């Protein structure tokens, strides 16, 4: 890279009907050289709100997370990309740190820590096992991040060296309350069930039953969810139920496109 030119930064936000919180999210991203918003099948005022912040809008309909993410990544013109969701906020401290990192980093990508809120409660411990994240590769050079094809929790692959984890966190308003958390679990498991069916291998009841205990322990003990008291217990419980609920939906929910005989054949006991 030409040392006389400051590396440029694109901020990317992928949106589906986020009129409630989109303006606050976009209003924190003015430090970027470019703001790109992907509007996925929006039926509310998201487009109007986004237009008030940037002309760089990408509109369409994508069934899979990775496809819509890459539509936005492809539209970004910056040397670096900061990928932010509508329910996330960038503090002034994080904004300053990001500008400093992209100016001097020789790495391909950086982890950014995440402070997760349930309502007004900051819950730091216990996240993971497909029900939350305490950090993710939100800052990367263009071309360094590749999303997988799964509907929920798509895999992510990076190229280039990993740089130092940033110190300032992304503020993530993950759920407004417990009811919203349970609705999210329902959405996640329904999407995962579709992926399982399409894979031709939905797993077995016994294996997914055993994963209840292992995933609960991973979040509550290994990821120190116990430090959050009953909130940590709730997060670990949702993470523990994710595999078995996904399996049961794949196994028991009606599927017009797949016969019951086919599904029985696919199941691995």
Structure description:
This protein is of the alpha/beta class and 269 residues long. It has helices at residues 22-26, 46-51, 65-75, 92-104, 178-199, 205-222, 230-252, 260-266, and strands spanning 9-15, 34-40, 57-60, 80-85, 88-89, 109-118, 121-123, 135-141, 145-147, 156-158, 170-175. The strands form 2 sheets. Strands 1, 2, 3, 4, 5, 6, 7, 8 and 11 form a 9-stranded mixed β-sheet that branches. A two-stranded antiparallel sheet has the order 9-10. Strand 9 (145-147) and strand 10 (156-158) form a beta hairpin. Helix 5 runs parallel beside helix 7 (230-252) and helix 6 (205-222) packs antiparallel against helix 7.
The count of β-strands is 11
Query: What about the largest sheet?
Result: 9 strands, mixed
Chain-averaged pLDDT: 92
Total of DSSP H or I helical runs spanning 4+ residues: 8
- N-to-C terminal Cα separation, in Å? 54 Å
Q: From N to C, what is the helix and strand string?
A: EHEHEHEEHEEEEEEHHHH
Q: Report the C-alpha radius of gyration, rounded.
A: 20 Å
Q: Percent of residues in beta strands?
A: 15-25%
Structural class: alpha/beta
Q: Considering DSSP H and I runs of 4 or more, what fraction of the residues is helical?
A: 25-40%
Shape: globular
Low-confidence stretches: 265-269
């Amino acid at each position: 890279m030409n040392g006389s030119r400051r590396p440029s930064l694109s901020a990317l936000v992928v949106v589906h009907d986020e009129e409630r919180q989109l303006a606050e999210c976009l209003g924190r991203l003015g430090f970027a050289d470019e703001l790109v918003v992907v509007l996925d099948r929006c039926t509310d005022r998201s487009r109007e709100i986004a237009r008030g912040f940037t002309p760089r809008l990408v509109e369409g309909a994508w069934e899979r997370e990775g496809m819509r993410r890459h539509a936005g990544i492809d539209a970004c013109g910056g040397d670096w990309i900061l990928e932010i969701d509508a329910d996330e906020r960038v503090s002034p401290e994080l904004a300053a740190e990001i500008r400093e990192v992209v100016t001097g980093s020789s790495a391909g990508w950086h982890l950014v820590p995440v402070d997760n809120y349930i309502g007004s409660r900051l819950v730091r411990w216990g996240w993971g096992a497909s029900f939350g994240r305490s950090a993710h590769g939100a800052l990367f050079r263009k071309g360094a991040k590749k999303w997988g094809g799964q509907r929920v929790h798509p895999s992510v692959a990076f190229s280039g060296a990993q740089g130092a984890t940033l110190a300032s966190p992304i503020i993530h308003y993950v759920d407004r309350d417990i009811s919203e958390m349970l609705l999210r679990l329902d959405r996640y498991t329904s999407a995962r069930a579709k992926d399982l069916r399409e894979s031709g291998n939905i797993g077995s009841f016994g294996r997914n039953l055993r994963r209840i205990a292992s995933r609960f322990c991973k979040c509550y003990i290994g990821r120190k969810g116990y430090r959050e008291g009953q909130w940590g217990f709730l997060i670990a419980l949702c993470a523990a139920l994710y595999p078995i609920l996904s399996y049961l939906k794949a196994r028991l929910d009606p599927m017009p496109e797949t016969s019951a005989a086919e599904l029985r054949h696919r199941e691995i006991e």
